[in-house]
Amino acid sequence: MARKKSPTLTEAELRLMEVLWQKRSATIADVTEALPPPPIAYNTVLTTMRILEQKGYVSHEEQGRAYVYSPLVEREEAAQSAVGLLLNRFFGNKSAELALRLIEKERPGEAELQRLKTLIEQYEEGP
């Protein structure tokens, strides 16, 4: 039985998940070949995929002699989990605090500013 899903992915795990999210299913050789530079050794990819499976992010099925891996968690869900952890650890679960920090750090573009204005207007109007 898989252990409880870890809330975040390491950088190495994320690199492999990006390939799986794009391909939807792949063997270890497929993932190794599709990785952008720098290259990762086949055995490292295999070990990392096993860890991802233990964490509950991927599953595999046998096709002949190969295992074909597929994502169990979509990119959006993984991103949401990572943001949730960030909110909890650094911002007291206050998403507005995180949003303000991000906006203070880098000026949004015109499209983002318009979207923010629209959201503010919606919140001012009520639920």
Task: Give the arrangement of secondary structure elements.
Elements: H1 11-23, H2 28-34, H3 42-55, E1 58-63, E2 66-71, H4 75-90, H5 95-105, H6 110-125
If you had to describe this structure to a student in words, what would you say it looks like?
The protein has six helices and two strands. The longest helix has 16 residues, at 75-90. The chain has a two-stranded antiparallel sheet with strand order 1-2. 61% of the residues lie in helices and 9% in strands. The relative contact order is 0.12. It folds into two domains: 1-93, Orthogonal Bundle (Arc Repressor Mutant, subunit A); 94-127, no CATH class. By secondary structure, it is mostly helical. The protein has helices spanning 11-23, 28-34, 42-55, 75-90, 95-105, 110-125; strands at 58-63, 66-71.
CATH homologous superfamily placement of the largest domain: Winged helix-like DNA-binding domain superfamily/Winged helix DNA-binding domain
Count of the separate structural domains:
2
Strand order of the largest sheet: 1-2
CATH architectural name of the largest domain:
Orthogonal Bundle
CATH class assignment of the largest domain: Mainly Alpha
CA-CA gap between termini:
42 Å
Q: Number of helical runs?
A: 6
Q: Helical percent range? A: 55-70%
Average the pLDDT over all residues and give the rounded result. Answer: 93
Q: Any idea what the shape is?
A: elongated
Structural class comes to mainly alpha
**How many runs of DSSP E, i.e. beta strands?**
2
> What's the SSE pattern?
HHHEEHHH
